[in-house]
Amino acid sequence: MRKIYFIRHSIRDIRFKHDVSAPLTEEGILLANGLVEVFKDKEIMRIFSSPFKRAIDTVQLIADDKSIEVEIVHDLYERTVGDWIDNFSAFAEQQWSDFDHKLKNGESLNEVKSRIVPAFEILVEMSEGDIIICGHGTSFSVLFNHLTDGVFGYDEFLEMKMPDVFEYEIGSNNIVKYL
């Protein structure tokens, strides 16, 4: 059975807020480096990443170790919040209770779903063997919610770490936390 390994990016430098070029912190770099060992014995055929620097940097050493390129997929980007908000927890909870809720210049979770589900389906269709997809907590959570028929929800979203690894077998409806 083919496996997809989803990696939520490592710890980003929050001084950059939601900036595409936000780097990993020093601790984030160390944690990302530790992922090389996690995937050392896995036969990974391809590695896909969000265009955000923190996601690319999280999987670059795995790609280097396996002598494969990180392939950038635009539609794997994180949910666009819109204006910066101070109480992210309240905002996230409101979005999870109403998948159409969004701020000005932001995306609703339904809009995220309409982008990330087809992107995922294309990646699965165009690749063979086991793959890694690196991205972001909210966008992955929306995809996981879809793949598990709603079992993965807000509470599971809150439990996600940076970095975090999840395993999904194609054709199942189960996302397993790998680490």
Task: Give the secondary structure arrangement, pairings included.
Elements: E1 3-8, H1 26-38, E2 44-49, H2 53-66, E3 70-72, H3 88-97, H4 109-126, E4 130-135, H5 137-147, H6 154-159, E5 164-169, E6 175-177
Parallel strand pairs: 1-4, 2-3, 2-4
Antiparallel strand pairs: 1-5, 5-6
Helix pairs in contact: 1-2, 4-5
Can you describe what's shown?
The chain has 179 residues and is α/β, with parallel strands linked by helices. It has helices at residues 26-38, 53-66, 88-97, 109-126, 137-147, 154-159; strands spanning 3-8, 44-49, 70-72, 130-135, 164-169, 175-177. It has a 6-stranded mixed beta sheet, with helices on both faces. Helix 1 packs parallel to helix 2 and helix 4 packs across helix 5. It is globular and about 45 Å long. The protein starts with a strand and ends with a strand. The model has no long low-confidence stretch (mean pLDDT 95).
Measured distance between first and last alpha carbons: 20 Å
Helix count, DSSP H or I runs of 4 or more residues: 6
Overall strand count:
6
Compressed to H and E, one letter per element, the order equals EHEHEHHEHHEE
Read across the widest sheet, the strand sequence of neighbours is 3-2-4-1-5-6
What is the residue-averaged pLDDT?
95
Label the overall shape. Answer: globular
Q: Major sheet, described briefly?
A: 6 strands, mixed
Low-confidence stretches: none
Strand content: 15-25%
Radius of gyration over all CA atoms, rounded: 15 Å
Q: Class by helix and strand content? A: alpha/beta
| Helix-residue proportion | 40-55%
